[in-house]
Design brief:
Helix content: 40-55%
Shape: elongated
Number of helices: 7
Strand content: 5-15%
Protein name: Flagellar hook-associated protein FlgL
Structural class: alpha+beta
CATH topology of the largest domain: f41 fragment of flagellin, N-terminal domain
Number of strands: 12
CATH architecture of the largest domain: Up-down Bundle
Family: Belongs to the bacterial flagellin family.
Strand order of the largest sheet: 5-12-7-8-9
Subcellular location: Bacterial flagellum; Secreted
Keywords: Bacterial flagellum, Cell projection, Cilium, Flagellum, Secreted
InterPro entries: Flagell_FlgL (IPR013384), Flagellin (IPR001492), Flagellin_N (IPR001029)
Radius of gyration: 41 Å
CATH superfamily of the largest domain: f41 fragment of flagellin, N-terminal domain
Number of domains: 3
Length: 403
């Protein structure tokens, strides 16, 4: 069978093009750093590589989310640290003010220091993050969550929601706390608080209350001690119960509690005892009560008793507020620790994804893959040169050259 010159040229060109294509494919592998450049190189591996790459991208997104969550929680933890220090300072000032050796001028000086602490706490309660959002406003973080009225009282105008952020596929984490939870609440484990009625005109003061029997069936209830003075005889009753003789310095026990009373009550005076969560839980109101009593000079016994009772109540409220802030701060710390744990798990997951992806695409950073591709590159280069030499030789095989 005779083979025409055209057929020889076509076969030689096809072989040359094929060798050229193989050589360029291996060169592209070296240039991109991977064996699987196009899906046609290994359809199954390419398909799986796309899935793994998507998983790697999602994992990275969660990593970025955790960075954002960590920044928010770290800022909150820093503010809560300052708030707890401020409350501790306020408690120290109140202990100082409780001393009977201080004059009214001395207490006014203490009040000045306490007012500075109060302003610090308000500033921290309205703290913002790096984007200008208020930390403790809930979802309403565009404006200050705590506002001061014309009479000086502070109220919360944020909401009770808390911002959350997804830090992993199966974990939605709270990345903030609202101001009501921090500054206007107490922990459920907070004990009892006693408070004298603002209208008391006698000189009775209290110490306590102390818990003596939590198993008492009435423990947990609120109680009101009411005094009655008739014909020079002073009695008291609890929640309108039977009258009992009042003996100064003797503890009054009710509902598993004990409170010690001193001084002489006036007719109609009263003292209320209740769980801290049912009494004043607003830190700012506690400051306001403390400042009001320290700024007011006490002349007679009734005014001195009112001051002593208010200081007693305020110190216990400061204790409860401090415990609450420290509890929230501990919660923030536990969430920061959880972020570290999730980071560790995600790092291992990302490492596995990276290794799987590298194996699927034939990453040339692997010495074995690199050596194989370089060997193929050299082979394809030799094959291309051979095809080129054969084409040159075939091109010269013509009868016209011998005529």
């Amino acid at each position: 069978m005779r083979i025409s010159t055209v057929t020889m040229y076509e076969q030689s060109m096809n072989s040359l093009n094929q060798q050229q294509g193989e050589f360029m494919r291996v060169g592209q592998q070296i240039a991109t750093g991977r064996k699987v450049v196009n899906p046609s190189d290994d359809p199954q591996a390419a398909s799986r590589a796309v899935q793994v790459a998507q998983s790697m991208s999602v994992t990275q997104q969660y990593t970025d989310s955790r960075i954002s969550a960590r920044n928010a929680l770290s800022q909150e933890e820093s503010v809560l640290n300052s708030v707890s220090d401020a409350i501790a300072s306020a408690k120290t000032l109140m202990i100082q003010a409780a001393s009977d050796t201080l004059s009214d001028a001395d207490r006014a000086s203490v009040a000045s220091d306490l007012r500075g602490v109060y302003e610090t706490v308000i500033g921290q309660a309205n703290a913002t993050d790096g984007n200008g959002r208020h930390l403790f406003g809930g979802y309403q973080d565009a404006s200050e969550p705590f506002v001061r009225a014309a009479d000086g009282t502070v109220s919360y105008v944020g909401d009770t929601n808390t911002r959350e952020q997804r830090i992993d596929a199966s974990r939605l984490m709270q990345v903030g706390d609202n101001g009501q939870t921090i500054f206007q609440s107490v922990h459920s484990s907070a004990g009892y608080v006693a408070e004298a009625d603002a209208g008391n005109s006698g000189s009775v003061t209290f110490k306590g209350p102390q818990v003596i029997d939590e198993s008492d069936p009435d423990f947990g209830n609120s109680f009101q001690i009411e005094f009655s003075v008739t014909g020079g005889t002073t009695t008291y009753s609890v929640d309108g119960g039977p009258a009992q003789a009042y003996e100064e310095g003797e503890p009054v026990e009710v509902g598993g509690l004990s409170i010690t009373l001193k001084g002489q009550p006036a007719d109609g005076d009263s003292i209320e005892m209740g769980k801290a969560e049912n009494m004043n839980t607003d830190l700012f109101k506690t400051f306001e009560k403390a400042l009001a009593v320290l700024d007011q000079p006490a002349g007679n016994d009734a005014e001195k008793a009112a001051r002593a009772n208010t200081i007693n109540t305020v110190m216990r409220e400061f204790d409860n507020s401090l415990d609450n802030v420290l509890t929230v701060r501990a919660s923030v710390g536990s969430r920061l620790n959880e972020l570290n744990v999730v980071d560790g798990v995600a790092d291992n997951r990302q490492l596995n994804y990276t290794e799987t992806y590298s194996n699927l695409i034939g990453d040339l950073s692997d010495p074995a893959n690199f050596a194989e591709v370089v060997s193929q590159y050299s082979l394809r280069q030799v094959s291309l040169q051979a095809a080129q030499k054969a084409f040159v030789d075939i091109k010269g095989m013509s009868l016209f050259d011998r005529m």
